User: Which sequence fits this backbone?
């Protein structure tokens, strides 16, 4: 769905994106991660033809960009750097104007499609209100509605939950999962690691313009071979496990060299209370920290 080879962007002497090879496959919910200034938004803008690459190649939906942009982009929904809108017009009027101006918009289905997307993003009751009266979160929902107007095969989103409260974030998450279940591939640039962890199937991590990691999230968070134990009898457990505790943090222990079942049997038979026991998995925060940690050899 998205394939880049050596994608590079320079702004004068500044190398913003450095030979990035993205591989976003059909059916992915792909989390694109990186700190502010890492080059995420510049990369997204190049994918959508908003900025021309200095070097490298881009394919969207199997077609080369920018050569095939007229054919490809109507099949791509996008929300980048916050939604743009005419403040004096209603949300509905903005969507109608956008659909009429863009390639591939069908007038006979416009009203139905606008009703559908406003309902999807939770703006059905306020679609006739002027956009200048919208909150930041409502503007973000309107931008997402615009991205969904053409029932896109590929959805490219840059911080889609910006300005939303926790309930709004959950609603957008459920909306994206529903779209994915119906066949939409989603490319999601975000700094909210908890949301990416709940949504995404694959991730790419950008650090100072370079793609430093790209893999299946499930593989990155596979069990490490250690076991996490939470017990109010932590000191007794440490003594009983005879040097196998690698780290203790209050009532939490990280243990190596035994299965969860073996540890549970050993602790319970010795009268040690166990509140929680299971395999250690890396959090996405740990994955990102490790991938972007400075190389001491440099």
Assistant:
């Amino acid at each position: 769905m998205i394939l880049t080879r050596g994608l590079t962007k320079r702004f004068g002497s500044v190398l913003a994106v450095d030979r990035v090879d993205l591989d976003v496959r059909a059916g992915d919910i792909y989390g694109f991660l990186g700190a502010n200034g890492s080059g995420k938004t510049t990369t997204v803008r190049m994918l959508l033809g908003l900025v021309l690459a200095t070097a490298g190649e881009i394919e969207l939906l199997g077609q080369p960009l920018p050569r095939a942009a007229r054919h490809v982009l109507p099949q791509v929904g996008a929300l980048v750097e916050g939604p743009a809108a005419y403040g004096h017009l209603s949300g509905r009027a903005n969507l109608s104007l956008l659909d009429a101006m863009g390639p591939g918009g069908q007038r006979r289905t416009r009203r139905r499609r606008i009703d559908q997307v406003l309902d999807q993003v939770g703006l059905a009751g306020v679609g006739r209100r002027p956009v200048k009266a919208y909150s930041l979160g409502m503007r973000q929902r309107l931008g997402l509605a615009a991205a969904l107007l053409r029932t896109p095969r590929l959805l490219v989103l840059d911080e889609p939950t910006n300005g939303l409260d926790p309930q709004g974030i959950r609603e957008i998450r459920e909306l994206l999962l529903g779209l994915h279940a119906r066949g939409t591939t989603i490319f999601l640039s975000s700094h909210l690691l908890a949301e990416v962890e709940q949504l995404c199937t694959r991730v790419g991590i950008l650090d100072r313009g370079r793609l430093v990691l790209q893999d299946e999230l499930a593989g990155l968070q596979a069990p490490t071979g250690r076991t996490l134990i939470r017990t109010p009898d932590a000191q007794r457990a440490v003594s009983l496990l005879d040097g196998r505790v690698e780290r203790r943090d209050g009532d939490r222990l990280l243990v190596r060299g035994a299965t969860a079942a073996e540890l549970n049997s050993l602790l319970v038979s010795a009268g040690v209370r166990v509140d929680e026991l299971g395999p250690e998995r890396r959090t996405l925060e740990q994955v990102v920290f490790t991938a972007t940690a400075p190389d001491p050899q440099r």
Summary: The mean pLDDT is 90. The chain is about 35% helix and 30% strand. The chain has two domains: 2-220, 224-281. Residues 2-220 form a domain with the Rossmann fold fold (CATH 3.40.50.300).
